[in-house]
Design goal:
With about 325 residues, this protein is an alpha/beta fold. It has 2 domains: about 180 residues, Alpha-Beta Complex (Quinone Oxidoreductase, Chain A, domain 1), CATH 3.90.180.10; about 130 residues, Rossmann fold (3-Layer(aba) Sandwich). It has 11 helices and 17 strands. The strands form 4 sheets. Strands 3, 4, 5, 8, 9, 16 and 17 form a 7-stranded mixed sheet that branches. The chain has a 6-stranded parallel sheet with strand order 12-11-10-13-14-15. Strand 11, helix 6 and strand 12 form a beta-alpha-beta unit. The protein is globular and about 65 Å long. It starts with a strand and ends with a strand.
């Protein structure tokens, strides 16, 4: 019997504890990955704390995995032992539904998240369907690439989904784990980039990341000062904001797009949408194809998350660091060989 070793939460908000578990028989289309690095995402915190919905414990979090394949199922394709891969929010999809056949496996009704109903990457090993274990470009540093597999993909998908042009004027709300990557993507895309933040201390940081200017995301006067100027506004935070004022920064036919999980109801007046043919949309983490494109884009443009490293044994300190809002901007756990 093969045993995996990881760190699990046994109750909502409880500190993670070492766990030993049997992963069961490996599916013939799966690969087994020896984890080298694993990012710590707010979604991991949400699962540990039952923030979004009641969670069945114990749970081993971790869905921003970089590691090396150590076993390949008999029916797995295009993957080999010794190959370095990344694994994100999803580990499996049905591959025969309308969405899967159309290349949108991330919308599959039977998709399996890496840390819901299965144990994730805060462990020495993790398993996934071969199609979701993506080869990591050699130009990317594996020590910092983990957050690209969830945070990076989530911030990148809207640029592809809505055919953002290099001439577009793009705003990014929230300079955090998702937002700092979105700013880098928009700058490399060729866009004029406006960074919105509620933290005065992050204004200079946003400029260093590539933003052309910064605006307060909570000061209505500042928001009104740029009314009608943006083509696309990407909201990466989960907080309730001045939605009407933010919508007012959009030009005619502009789009406010959500990738942050806002748990409270959004209060929006439709007048600001109707009068200028503006719209609101949202998207999740992407398909394997888009994830692969994102990795290639990062390799081509030298884009990497800004990370802070913790040893896997210090996972609780890493979670507390993220909870405190002090992370700049993503946390990565290092697995000792």
């Amino acid at each position: 019997m093969t045993l995996f070793h990881g760190w699990a939460a046994h109750a909502s908000g409880a500190p993670l504890q070492p766990i030993e578990f049997d992963p069961g028989l490996m599916d013939p289309e799966d690969v087994e990955i020896a984890v080298e690095y694993c990012g710590v995402c707010h979604s991991d915190l949400a699962m540990v704390d039952s923030e979004w919905f009641p969670v069945n414990y114990p749970i081993v979090p971790g869905h921003e995995v970089v590691g090396t394949i150590v076993a390949v199922g008999a029916q797995a394709k295009g993957r080999s032992v010794g190959q370095r891969v990344g694994l994100g929010w999803h580990s499996k999809s049905c591959l025969h539904c309308h969405h899967c056949m159309g290349g949108e496996q991330n919308l599959c009704g039977k998709r399996q998240p890496t840390i819901i109903g299965r144990h994730g990457g805060f462990a020495d090993k993790v398993r996934a369907h071969w199609s979701w274990a993506l080869p990591l470009p050699a130009a990317l540093d594996p020590a910092s690439a983990g957050p690209l597999m969830c945070g990076g993909g989530t911030a990148f998908l809207p640029f592809v989904l809505h055919d953002i042009k290099p001439t577009d004027r793009v705003g990014v709300v929230g300079i955090g784990g998702l937002g700092h990557l979105a700013v880098k993507f928009a700058k490399a895309w060729g866009c004029e980039v406006t960074a919105f933040t509620s933290s005065p201390s992050k204004r200079e940081e946003a400029l260093l990341l590539g933003a052309h200017r910064t605006v307060s995301s909570v000061d209505v006067k500042e928001l009104k000062a740029i009314a009608g100027q943006l083509d696309f506004l990407l909201v990466t935070v989960g907080a309730s904001l001045e939605w009407d004022a933010l919508i007012g920064t959009l030009a005619a036919k502009g789009r406010l797009h959500m990738v942050g999980v806002v748990t409270e109801a959004m209060k929006v007046r439709t007048g600001g949408l109707l009068s200028w043919q503006r719209c609101i949309s949202a998207s999740p983490t992407p398909s394997p194809v888009v994830l692969g494109k994102m990795l290639e884009f990062c390799a081509r443009h030298g884009i990497a998350p800004q990370v802070e490293h913790f040893a896997m044994d210090d996972v609780n300190a890493a979670l507390d660091h993220l909870r405190s809002g002090k992370a700049r901007y993503r946390v990565v756990l290092d697995v000792k060989p």
